[in-house]
Amino acid sequence: MTEIPLFPLPLVLFPGGRLPLQIIEARYLDMLTACVRNDSGFGVVMIKEGRQILNHREEQLPSIAYTGTLAKLIDFDQGTSGSLDILIEGQCKFVIRDQYEQDDRLMLAQVEYLAPEVPATIPEDKQHLASLLESLLEHEAVRNLNLVVDLFDATAVGGRLTELLPLPNLFKQRMLEMKNPLARLSDLENLITRMQDSQS
């Protein structure tokens, strides 16, 4: 097992996904400094309950999901008022085996990294999902992430669609925890169909 710092967020990041963040809390600025110095990463985990930012030191830390994604810093820029604007990229999934905190309230965990998913090509009856993703990649905010996506790879398409579509976080977390990329595509297709039907 490996010890990594955790960054709880109200969202889900997949391996291969990119995410812009604005860092303002000292504990996370210090964490990023250590990550750059050690060429290491940190764990992005979904907040199940509680707050992302602590208003005072005695405030309870958020309740988090136990499966997350190791992230590495891709780019950064000094923001306004002492903040740091960063771009991170998901590397691999992990499961938390033990969780604790530092004196500065930074959450730490002993994690077990999970093996990459077995590669799978998108079947013909799911090609419309790749087309949907292709259209999402044309949006300006998404283009700014400079994502490189293999539109024939089920893991890549499922991960990017889950991140980019306005889906409930608990559903996104369930998609992250799935190991079968084709089953993930089927569940995405079912939910997208239900959402489209409810709007018609």
What does this 3D model show about the protein?
This protein has 200 residues and is an alpha+beta fold. A hairpin with a 5-residue loop joins strand 6 (84-101) and strand 7 (107-113). It has a 5-stranded mixed barrel with strand order 1-3-5-6-7. Helix 2 crosses helix 4 and helix 4 packs parallel to helix 6. The longest helix is centred in the C-terminal third of the chain and has 19 residues, at 181-199. It is globular and about 50 Å long. The model has no long low-confidence stretch (mean pLDDT 91). Helix content is 33%, strand content 30%. It folds into 2 domains: 2-113, Archaeosine Trna-guanine Transglycosylase, Chain: A, domain 4, CATH 2.30.130.40; 124-199, LON domain-like fold, CATH 1.10.4060. It has helices at residues 26-38, 127-136, 140-143, 154-164, 169-177, 181-199, and strands at residues 2-9, 18-23, 42-49, 63-64, 67-78, 84-101, 107-113. The protein is built from 6 helices and 7 strands.
| Elements, N to C (H/E) | EEHEEEEEHHHHH
Number of strand segments: 7
Largest sheet: spatial strand order: 1-3-5-6-7
Q: Can you tell me the CATH class of the largest domain?
A: Mainly Beta
Terminal residue distance: 49 Å
User: Which CATH architecture of the largest domain would you pick?
Assistant: Roll
Q: Can you tell me the CATH superfamily of the largest domain?
A: LON domain-like
Uncertain runs: none
Count of individual helical segments: 6
The shape, in one word, is globular
Which value, in Å, is the CA radius of gyration?
Answer: 17 Å
User: Structural class, from helix and strand content?
Assistant: alpha+beta
The helical percent reads 25-40%
Could you describe the largest sheet, including whether it forms a barrel?
Answer: 5 strands, mixed, barrel
